[in-house]
Write a structure and sequence with these properties.
Rossmann fold; about 190 residues; two-stranded parallel sheet; binds 2-acetamido-2-deoxy-beta-D-glucopyranose; alpha/beta; 6 strands; four-stranded parallel β-sheet
C-alpha cells in the first residue's frame, strides 16, 4: 500500500509517542551527560537526566539504595521501563568487579517491566586514549571491557551497545562533556537507542 507522506509522518510520530520515556537508565554524571545531549537532540525514548551525578557502580549494587529510589521515582512518573541502559561508571579507587556488573543487571531487571531489554555500555572513552581523572588511568576502558564481557555472556541476556566517545575538544574538566561533547554524546545515543 502506498501511504501519502503526511500519513507516514503521522504514523511515525504516533509510534515515537508510544515509546516515549520507555527506556530507563542507570549510571553516573556521564550518563547524565548522554541523557542531556539526547534530549537536546530531540530523543524521546530514553528518560532525560534525573540527578545521577556521582552514582558510580557501588551506588547501584544495593537494590534498595537512594539511587534506585530515584530510579523508581522516574518509573512511577513514566511507567515501568520496558528497556534499561546500564552504564558502568566508576571512581578509580572503588573500580568495578564482574560480580558487581552482574548485580547491576539483576537489579535493573528487578526495577523494570517484566522481560525488559537490558542494554549495557561502559562510560565514554576519550579520543587519543585520554584519561578521566575520576575513573583513573585505564578506568574508562575497564568499564567498556566489563560491558563487552557481559554482552558476550549468554546467561546474562544483555545487549552491549558499543563505545561512547568524547573527542579532545569535547571535554570540559578532564572527564565530563562540554557543550560540544553533550551534542556528540546525544547524537551517539540517538543512533543507538532511537
Ligand atoms: C532475554 O531478554 C529479552 C528482552 O531483551 C526477553 O524478551 C527474553 O525473554 C529474555 N530471554 C531469556 C531466556 O530470559
Amino acid at each position: 500500500m502506498h501511504l501519502p507522506l503526511a500519513s507516514l509522518a503521522l504514523a511515525m510520530a504516533g509510534r515515537a509517542a508510544a515509546q516515549d520515556h520507555t527506556l530507563g537508565f542507570i549510571g553516573c554524571s556521564m550518563a547524565e551527560n548522554v541523557a542531556t545531549g539526547y534530549v537536546a537532540a530531540g530523543g524521546q525514548r530514553m528518560w532525560g537526566p534525573y540527578g545521577t551525578g556521582g552514582a558510580v557502580v557501588q551506588s547501584w549494587t544495593n537494590s534498595a539504595s537512594a539511587s534506585w529510589r530515584s530510579f523508581d521515582a522516574q518509573a512511577a512518573k513514566y511507567g515501568l521501563p520496558t528497556a534499561v541502559w546500564v552504564q558502568i561508571c566508576i571512581f578509580a579507587q572503588a573500580g568495578v568487579s564482574y560480580d558487581e556488573v552482574n548485580q547491576l543487571i539483576a537489579n535493573a531487571r528487578e526495577h523494570a517491566a517484566p522481560d525488559a531489554e537490558i542494554y549495557i555500555s561502559g562510560q565514554p572513552l576519550y579520543e587519543g586514549g585520554a584519561t578521566c581523572f575520576l575513573a583513573g588511568q585505564g578506568g574508562a576502558e575497564l568499564t567498556d571491557e566489563m560491558a563487552a564481557r557481559a554482552g558476550e555472556d549468554e546467561a546474562l541476556n544483555v545487549t552491549y551497545v558499543g563505545k561512547f566517545w568524547l573527542g579532545n575538544v569535547e571535554v570540559a574538566d578532564g572527564c565530563h562533556a562540554n557543550a560540544a561533547g553533550l551534542t556528540a554524546l546525544g547524537a551517539q545515543a540517538l543512533e543507538i537507542f532511537g
